[in-house]
Structure formats: structure tokens, C-alpha cells
Write a structure and sequence with these properties.
The protein folds into two domains: 191 residues, Spore Coat Polysaccharide Biosynthesis Protein SpsA, Chain A (Alpha-Beta Complex), CATH 3.90.550.10; 101 residues, no CATH class. It is of the alpha/beta class and 306 residues long. It is globular and about 70 Å long. 43% of the residues lie in helices and 22% in strands. The strands form two sheets. Strands 1, 2, 3, 4, 5, 6, 7, 8, 9, 12 and 13 form an eleven-stranded mixed β-sheet that branches. Strands 10-11 form a two-stranded antiparallel ribbon. Helix 1 crosses helix 5, helix 6 crosses helix 9 and helix 8 runs antiparallel to helix 9. The chain contains nine helices and 13 strands.
């Protein structure tokens, strides 16, 4: 499946006419657990775009479910195992006749420019276009990240109902289309992080454990198309073949200096260091811990068999 750009038209009048006369039916799916801080802005950004909103909650103890209902969302409850399994469960259990599906996280927002562009292009797409790829913009501590290879990150987030499933991975799971081709749409999907640095660090500690599970898994890595595929191939064929720990440092140097991450200011310094070095170093440390434990178990087994 190939990716093609859709160029944005400047005509505001043509957008208003097309959106009124031929608005597509779009169902948005949001996975949640204790997202009372982020969920309101996410759902607010969907107003006027998503015809249906499904919030799949995995046991929130705060006001997440009440907030979702206040915005008119349909709430389903299901125990969480992984993002991919939870999302595929949602696809299998929502009751919708929507033409298109949108995947959006609670800490993400549709920027109005992306909403307008999606509503303009979707009604006119040829039938062989089954997915739309949108650019993710990271907003860290209130500042938009523009450098350090962080923008744009092209993600498959909108697809024709029945044509997309989430690949089975613990981390960095993507939507895979069963057939058809994709188009790139201009605009911004805003990833608003963090609630606070304590929460962000705790979450990334959890992410690191799950990423280790993917790296250690004997299952073959799914090949993706487009920018997501290029990033994954680079990680598999280059990054993971570099020496552990050194590769985290090399990746940070690449992002912060070669890709001009230092131009993102103080917020960028924090983000590129924590996400580009600390997180990747933590993954290597957890892998090291795993291999040391395997060596210890093998040594103990050898002693018992002597």
C-alpha cells in the first residue's frame, strides 16, 4: 500500500458547503483508564467531526466514565491486557454503521485544521483509498516540538470501517489495513503531554517493560508501509544492532544535535533527553537485567545437573 499526499485547498467556502451537504459518518474510539484530566479536551475536539464516540474503559476510579457520558459518548468496559488487544476488542464489540473509524488517545486532540481537511477530503475519496495517514505533533510542557525528528510523525489513524486491525504488539502498535491504499492528509493531531513529569516517567517505565517484551519476542515483526514502516525498519536493522547503552546515547546525539532538537528550547531539552536518551537507556537496562537473570537461572540449572 502506498502513501500519497493530499494538498490542502484554501477555500473556506468550499469546505463549508461540502461538509454540510455530504458529511461522512465517522466513529471515534478512545481507550481510557483514569483520564479525567485529558479526556474532556479530547472529546471536545471531536465535536462536529465524529458522528459517534466510543470510550472503552478499563476500570477507571476517577470521573472518566462520567465525563465520557456527559459528552454523549457510548461507554464500554473491558479489562486491559494491551493496547492492541483492547483496541481490537473495541472494533469487534462496538455497534456502528459508520463509514470510517478514527483511533484517538485520551491525551490527543484533533486540531481544527485537521478536522477541516478530513471533512473536506473524505467524501471525495476513491474507493481504493481505505486509510488516511495524519501527522502527529507532540506538545510537551505546553510547547510544540518542531525539531529532533519529532514532527511530523505520520500515523495511520483513520480508515474505512472493516478494513483496519491493530497489529498484536506490546508497544508501538499500528493499524494495518487488509487492502487498499493510504493517503496523507495535512493538519495536526496534537499529542498533549504530560499531565505531570511524575506520571510521564511512571508510564514510560511501564512502556519500557512492554517494549522489552516485544524485543525479546520470537514472533516476526510486521512489515509496515510508508513512514511508519521506514522508522520500524531503521529501528530493527540499525538501532537494535548497535551495542546496548551506546545506542541510546548515539540516538540522543542524533536527535538533539543532528536533527536540531536543541532548537525546541528548555521544554525540548527535557523531552529529547527523557524520551530520546533516558527511555531508550532504560529499555537497555531492563534487557540487561533480563539476560543476567537468564544467566543466573542457567547456572543454577547446571549446578543441579552436575
Amino acid at each position: 500500500m502506498s502513501e500519497t499526499f493530499i494538498q490542502k485547498r484554501p477555500s473556506w467556502f468550499s469546505y463549508k458547503m461540502s461538509s454540510r451537504l455530504d458529511r461522512p459518518i465517522i466513529a471515534a474510539i478512545v481507550l481510557t483508564k483514569n483520564e479525567e484530566h485529558d479526556l474532556p479536551d479530547c472529546l471536545r475536539s471531536l465535536q462536529g467531526f465524529a458522528s459517534e464516540i466510543y470510550v472503552v474503559d478499563s476500570g477507571s476510579t476517577d470521573q472518566t466514565v462520567q465525563i465520557a457520558k456527559q459528552f454523549g459518548a457510548t461507554v464500554l468496559t473491558h479489562s486491559f491486557e494491551s493496547h492492541s488487544q483492547q483496541f481490537n476488542w473495541a472494533l469487534d464489540n462496538i455497534t456502528t454503521d459508520a463509514d470510517w473509524i478514527l483511533r484517538i488517545d485520551a491525551d490527543e486532540r484533533l486540531h481544527p485544521n485537521l478536522t477541516h481537511e478530513l471533512l473536506r477530503v473524505i467524501p471525495n475519496l476513491p474507493v481504493d483509498v481505505t486509510g488516511l495517514v495524519v501527522p502527529l505533533r507532540i506538545r510537551f510542557l505546553g510547547r510544540d516540538m518542531r525539531f529532533g525528528d519529532t514532527y511530523p510523525v505520520w500515523l495511520q489513524r483513520v480508515w474505512r470501517n472493516g478494513f483496519g486491525r491493530c497489529e498484536e504488539r506490546w508497544m508501538d502498535e499500528r493499524i494495518v489495513l487488509s487492502s487498499g491504499r493510504t493517503l496523507r492528509v495535512r493538519g495536526d493531531l496534537i499529542h498533549e503531554i504530560p499531565k505531570n513529569l511524575t506520571e510521564w516517567i511512571a508510564k514510560h517505565n511501564w512502556y519500557a517493560t512492554r517494549e522489552c517484551a516485544d524485543i525479546l519476542s520470537p514472533e516476526p515483526v510486521v512489515s509496515l508501509e510508508g513512514a511508519a514502516g521506514a522508522r520500524r525498519r531503521m529501528k530493527q536493522s540499525v538501532y537494535l544492532r548497535l551495542p546496548p547503552f551506546f545506542r541510546a546515547f548515539a540516538y540522543w546525539l542524533y536527535r538533539y544535535f543532528l536533527k536540531l532538537g536543541f532548537l525546541d528550547g528548555k521544554a525540548g531539552l527535557i523531552y529529547h533527553f527523557l524520551q530520546g536518551f533516558w527511555y531508550r537507556f532504560l529499555v537497555d537496562a531492563k534487557l540487561y537485567e533480563h539476560y543476567k537473570e537468564q544467566q543466573r537461572l542457567a547456572a543454577n540449572q547446571g549446578e543441579r545437573t552436575v
